Amino acid sequence: MATLNLKNPHSVLAVLKTRPKDVLEIRVSQAREQRDLGDSTGKKDYWLEVLQLAKKLGIRTTTAPRPSKGLEPRGEEGRTSTTEAVVREKASVAIEQLLPPEAQGESASGLWLAFDQLQDPHNVGSIFRTAAFFGVRGIIMTQDRSATLTSTVYDVASGGVESVPFSIVPNLQRAFEVSKERGLWILGTSEHAKQPWNQVSKDRNWLLVFGNEEKGMRRLTEESCDVVCSIPPASDAVTSLNVSVTAGILISKLA
């Protein structure tokens, strides 16, 4: 299983609290070692919380090598920071595990998401964060032509990847078939759809689908949807939204 270098302390804390055995090492910057770990500004120091929890769990802490001049990553408030955690990536689950058993009844209620070849890791991470905030039950992702779950995704998600189970599938159509067998309705999103988003009924278990940033949903994906909705613009000044913004609006309505 691949390893990731996480630089967002919120992401690291989430891994420490949910699967601590997958945290292999905490690398602390020399600058941090040379100063008081408490924050003199009064702001909470989340890396201090990471280090305290790591020590309690017996996770190895080492000094990070100093980066080459001019290549120093910037931390909070512009400080030079190379503090990071080396963690194993989270495992994908089978589609059958992600979705509720057929005829499960009221306990199966909720919202699931599907990504039809989203390629920007910042969008993927942002949607994972929103999904975790609103209690989305799971996310389906395509195996090919999609952003992989890199360190960027984990850090942008700020712990969301640890909260929301996901399934990476080779065939999205097969995932749709299983979803419909389990009682979910497929809701697609398209700026060209005639049905506005605020007319979508919340009284169903939805699998909400987001298409590629440039091309939108593929033709077969759209044809598989029970409903396709759009968020109409208020004027001609701006006629489309970033997919992560669209996701936030629709998830907040349906979750």
Number of helices: 10
The global form is: elongated
Which regions contain 5 or more consecutive residues with pLDDT less than 50?
Answer: 75-80
| CATH level 3 topology of the largest domain | Alpha/beta knot
Structural class: alpha/beta
Bin the strand percentage.
Answer: 15-25%
| Major sheet: arrangement of strands | 7-6-5-10-8-11-9
N-to-C CA distance: 32 Å
Summarize the helix and strand pattern as letters: EHEHHEEHEHEHHEHEEEHEH
For the report, how would you describe the main beta sheet? Answer: 7 strands, parallel
Rg is: 20 Å
CATH second-level architecture of the largest domain: 3-Layer(aba) Sandwich
Quaternary state of the chains: single chain
Query: Would you state the CATH class of the largest domain?
Result: Alpha Beta
Look at the structure and give the mean pLDDT.
89
**Quick one: how many beta strands?**
11
In CATH terms, the superfamily of the largest domain is SPOUT methyltransferase, trefoil knot domain
Binned, the helix content reads: 25-40%
- The total domain count is 2
Explain the overall architecture:
With 255 residues, the protein is an alpha/beta fold. It folds into 2 domains: 3-88, Ribosomal protein L30/S12 (60s Ribosomal Protein L30, Chain: A, 2-Layer Sandwich), CATH 3.30.1330.30; 95-254, SPOUT methyltransferase, trefoil knot domain (Alpha/beta knot), CATH 3.40.1280.10. Helix content is 33%, strand content 20%. It contains 10 helices and 11 strands. It has helices spanning 9-18, 30-33, 46-57, 95-98, 121-134, 151-157, 160-163, 172-181, 219-224, 243-254, and strands at residues 3-6, 23-28, 61-63, 84-88, 111-116, 138-142, 166-169, 185-189, 195-196, 206-211, 227-230. It has a 7-stranded parallel sheet with strand order 7-6-5-10-8-11-9. Helix 1 crosses helix 6. The chain is elongated and about 60 Å long. It starts with a strand and ends with a helix. Mean pLDDT is 89; it is low at 75-80.
